[in-house]
């Protein structure tokens, strides 16, 4: 990936983070350089060079009503909600709801984010809602819900060439240290249910360690707990009140990481004052719940038994798209359409179901395709095609990916 590097071990500047100590002090996986991060639409999922597993080949049909969650489900069935309610929950959970001193560079960089979040027909809003409610349940600031925007563009199957994977871009060593199973044929980092549970647990521990300072928490998530603690000791500041600029000795991209999240929060906060954007969000959204897939040996088998659409589940859960853990019961995100909705969930009622008319304006990537050849074939510019799908010049197109054309 052109603008991303693995976090360096301290003090060696060229070693990958996977060579660091295996404790949670190593950070979630990588320190990021300047990158263009987008809220990825349903049709395409690679972000900034990350390749994606489990992309849907065609827009799925509306999902049938789901069964109630099995005992032990990570999250209870949620009542049907709206995109506007998700946004209000996000805003209510911000540690710093006042939008001030946002870096103009990052405001410009992420100016597209509100439009992408409000776009109908994709999974991003539902995934965002699941993360927001997971953080609210843990009493954590919802600024943390913006981390997947920066890390993966909210693409559950995003995989970096340098190793990090999934919604939260854990490296292997950090993922395993937080309970994610990573083995031949199964990678729980690509499970948004399991990786979100791990990320929330990790962030909760960091948030406590840094006395409720959300900015230091995300710096530690990016660069590593040990690094930030060492920098704090050198600066002599108080943990709870320390500002990033007063904690010296960290990579510049770690300070930028905080600025990116604050700029994103400001952009969403300001978008929330615009009637047109609020109206776009004010539509039904079928919540996602984390569901143990008991008594099944494949996603398709569980879907058939529980009245769920297998294609939708594959798209939401790339870890289980053709894969299954060697032992134990996997956790998956499933549409909570059994939560008081009547009849089959419609495309309009569920953000995890592509709209029916989207099929006429999509293209399924074939072997040998490139962005430029696809763009020429369909009469759009290459940049327009990339922008529509949250892609960049170095993004990897994989056979079976579905790209939006307009």
Q: What does this molecule look like?
A:
The protein starts with 50 loop residues before the first strand and ends with a strand. A hairpin with a 2-residue loop joins strand 4 and strand 5 (186-187). It is mainly alpha-helical. The radius of gyration is 20 Å and the shape is globular. It has helices spanning 83-92, 104-109, 113-118, 124-137, 147-152, 172-177, 192-209, 214-223, 225-235, 252-271, 275-281, 299-306, 310-316, 371-377, 382-388, and strands spanning 51-52, 81-82, 158-159, 182-183, 186-187, 284-285, 288-292, 331-335, 362-364, 402-404. A two-stranded antiparallel ribbon has the order 1-3. A two-stranded antiparallel ribbon has the order 2-6. It has a single domain (17-404), classed as Lysozyme. The chain contains 15 helices and 10 strands. Residues 1-25, 30-78 and 339-360 have low confidence and may be disordered. It is 35% helix and 7% strand.
């Amino acid at each position: 990936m052109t603008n991303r590097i693995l976090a360096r071990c301290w003090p060696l500047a060229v070693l990958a983070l996977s060579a660091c100590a295996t404790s949670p002090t190593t950070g979630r996986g990588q320190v990021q350089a300047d990158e263009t991060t987008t809220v990825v639409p349903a049709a395409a999922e690679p972000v900034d060079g990350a390749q994606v597993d489990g992309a849907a080949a065609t827009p799925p049909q509306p999902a049938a009503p789901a069964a109630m969650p099995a005992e032990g489900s990570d999250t209870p069935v949620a009542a049907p909600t709206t995109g506007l309610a998700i946004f209000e929950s996000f805003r209510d959970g911000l540690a710093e709801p006042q939008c001030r001193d946002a870096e103009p560079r990052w405001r410009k960089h992420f100016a597209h984010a509100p439009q992408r979040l409000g776009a109908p027909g994709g999974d991003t809003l539902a995934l965002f809602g699941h993360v927001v409610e997971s953080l609210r349940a843990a009493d954590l600031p919802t600024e943390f819900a913006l981390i997947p925007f920066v890390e993966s563009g909210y693409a559950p199957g995003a995989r970096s060439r340098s190793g990090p994977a999934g919604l939260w871009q854990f490296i292997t060593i950090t993922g395993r240290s937080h309970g994610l199973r990573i083995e031949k044929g199964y990678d729980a980092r690509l499970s948004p249910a399991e990786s979100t549970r791990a990320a929330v647990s990790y962030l909760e521990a960091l948030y406590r360690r840094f006395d409720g300072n959300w900015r230091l928490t995300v710096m530690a998530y990016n660069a590593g707990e040990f690094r930030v603690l060492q920098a704090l000791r050198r600066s002599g500041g108080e943990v709870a009140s320390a500002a990033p600029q007063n904690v010296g000795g960290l990579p510049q991209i770690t300070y930028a990481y905080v600025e990116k999240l604050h700029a994103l929060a400001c952009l969403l906060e300001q978008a929330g004052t615009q009637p047109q954007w609020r109206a776009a969000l004010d539509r039904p959204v079928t919540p996602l719940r984390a569901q143990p897939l008991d008594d099944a040996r494949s996603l398709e088998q569980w879907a058939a038994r529980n009245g769920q659409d297998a294609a939708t589940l594959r798209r939401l859960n790339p870890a289980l798209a053709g894969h299954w853990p060697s032992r134990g019961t996997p956790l998956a995100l499933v549409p909570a359409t059994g939560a008081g909705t009547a009849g089959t969930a419609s495309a309009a009622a569920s953000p995890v179901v592509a709209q029916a008319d989207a099929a006429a304006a999509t293209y399924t990537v074939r072997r040998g395709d490139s962005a430029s050849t696809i763009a020429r074939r369909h009469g759009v510019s290459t940049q327009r095609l990339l922008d529509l799908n949250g892609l960049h010049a170095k993004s990897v197109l994989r056979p079976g990916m579905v790209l939006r054309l307009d």
